[in-house]
Structure formats: C-alpha cells, structure tokens
Specification:
305 residues, alpha+beta, eight-stranded antiparallel sheet
C-alpha cells in the first residue's frame, strides 16, 4: 500500500526534467540515476530518520484538458511524468519529512498535483493539504492492517508508539541531520536508536563515542562501553559497560558542552578540545545495568491508535 501523487504543469511553464535533476543534486539524501533515460527512479533515504520514498519518471508526453459545460477547453495541463510514492502503514513522521520536501519541490517548479487519494484533477495543494491527506490515508492503512491481523489471529511485526513520542524523536533527529549537512561536518552525528523495553515502552538510546567531537542529543539513555585505565597502573584497564541517563550525563559534562543551535537549545555539541575531559568526567558517573531491550527500526513503527 502506498500514497501516490502525480505532478503536472500548465502551458505557461517551460518544463525540463533536467532542471528537476539539477535541483535535487543539491539536496541531501537523494540518489539520482547515473544516466538519464525514458524511465528511471529518484530515491530518497535519510539514514538518520529512516524515512524513504521515491520519484518514478516515465516519459509519456500526455496531458489533461479541462472543459466548460459547452465543451470549450478552459485549461491544459501537461504531465511532468513524475510520480511520488511513499509506503503507508508507517509512523506519522514519515509524512512530515517526505511531504515537506515534496511540497517544496512542487512550489519550486509551480506544479499542479493530482492526489488520487482525494480528487482526480490537477490543482494546487499546500504542504499542509498534502500532509492532511497522508495522515488520513495512513491512519486508514494502519487500521486495515490491524483489523486483518486480528481477523487472521496473526501477530504484527509493527510496533505501536504514540505519535507524539515518535514525532519528538524524529524532530530532533531530522533537525540534527539538517544542521550538520548544511553547516558543519566536523561533528559526529550519533544515531538516536529506539528500543522497546519489557513493558512495551519505547526508549531512545544513543551510543557514547568517546573518541571524536560529537552532537549530544536529548534521549532517554546513553549506552556506554569503553576501557578505563588506572593512573597508578597504566598497563591495567577495566571495561565499563552500562547505561547513563541523559540528564545525569548532561549535568556531569556541563562544562564541556556548547550550544547546538538557538532553535534546539536542549541539544549540545562536544568539541574536540573537550573530548578527553568529558571521558574523565564520565568515569565519575555510576552506570546502570543493561536492560532487556528490543531495537525498533523506524520502518517498524506505526502510530498507536
């Protein structure tokens, strides 16, 4: 099951697929074909959020005419030959990320959109309109799959997470990836992984690096694993493995951390010159034992309805 959109332009617009390709070359996470042709796929995959979709191009030279009651042509629309497609039965944030990009693309080239989930005629849609349509289509898909599994008595591979919680995780992860891509590549962006505990609660966990300058995002826990060396016996070391709550780590390392951005003041940066000090301070924090957890891939998440 998927959510599809088709793009058209009017007579006033000079359209070339090469212009679209040139525009997308400057956008992160798009994979463009090496050679143009009559058919190809433009794919998008954000490795940080797991959001993916694609634009399929198939040359057709087709169009649509609108006529009045007397049969006179009132408008002509020409096919861009591009189809947007994203899977449904997904978390809400898939739509937020994908449709913000597609809405921007349609605005850039002044396209009309056929949204087969709503109306079958070309019209101008705002990003908010498209997102509303996606949310409704996705909600129905989640309910359909859930009802089908209950009818069959089979278990679902999807994991239900409240939309507010998954959206909070996505917003921080997405904004971090955008900031680093656009401004600074000298900081490691750690993956904010989602896990499910024994009670079915979703927890966000980040692995502590300890060797490189990195972004320190907000999360529930940091996973720590490193060898601690003893000053009195440098040739000896002991392994420290465990979890530390974000608030405890942020408090202990407060003097080492810098602001990430004015928009996301709760996310910090650990600069290169403070990495060694941060590791020494980390030695003072008591670690919690590892919990029984199951990792959740973003594509497995659905909204809890």
């Amino acid at each position: 099951m998927s959510f599809d959109l088709y793009f058209f332009h009017n007579e006033a617009i000079e359209y070339k697929i090469s212009d679209v390709m040139d525009y997308l070359k400057g956008k992160p996470y798009f994979k463009l074909p090496d050679v143009d042709g009559d058919e190809f796929i433009i794919s998008y995959m954000n490795p940080y959020t797991g959001v993916d979709f694609y634009l399929a191009y198939q040359k057709s030279n087709t169009g649509i005419e609108e006529r009045d009651d007397q049969g006179n042509v009132t408008a002509r629309f020409f096919n861009t030959d591009l189809t947007f497609r994203i899977n449904v039965n997904r978390a809400t944030f898939f739509g937020y990320e994908a449709l913000s990009i597609i809405g921007e693309l349609a605005d850039k080239f002044d396209w009309f959109v056929i949204n087969p989930q709503n109306e079958g005629i070309p019209k101008k849609y705002t990003t908010e309109d498209l997102l509303h349509s996606w949310l409704e289509t996705n909600r129905r898909a989640i309910e359909t799959v859930k009802d089908y599994n209950e009818m069959r008595g089979s278990s679902s591979i999807s994991i239900e997470v409240p939309a507010e919680q998954s959206l909070e995780w996505w917003k921080k992860t997405y904004e971090m990836s955008r900031f680093i891509e656009e401004h600074d590549e000298s900081f490691l962006i750690p993956k904010i992984s989602l896990f499910e505990d024994e009670e079915g609660k979703a927890l966000s966990i980040v692995q502590w690096n300890g060797e490189h300058p990195q972004v320190i995002p907000t999360c529930d826990f940091f996973y720590v694993k490193y060898k601690k060396k003893w000053k009195w016996a440098p040739f000896l070391s002991s392994e420290r493995v465990g979890l530390v709550r974000h608030r405890d780590l942020a408090k202990e390392l407060e003097t080492c951390l810098l602001p990430f951005s004015t928009e996301l003041s709760d996310i910090k940066l650990l600069p290169k010159e403070h990495v060694k000090l941060a590791n020494r301070l980390l030695d003072q924090i008591q670690l919690q034992p590892i919990l029984p957890l199951r990792e959740i891939e973003p594509s497995m998440i659905v909204d809890k309805i």
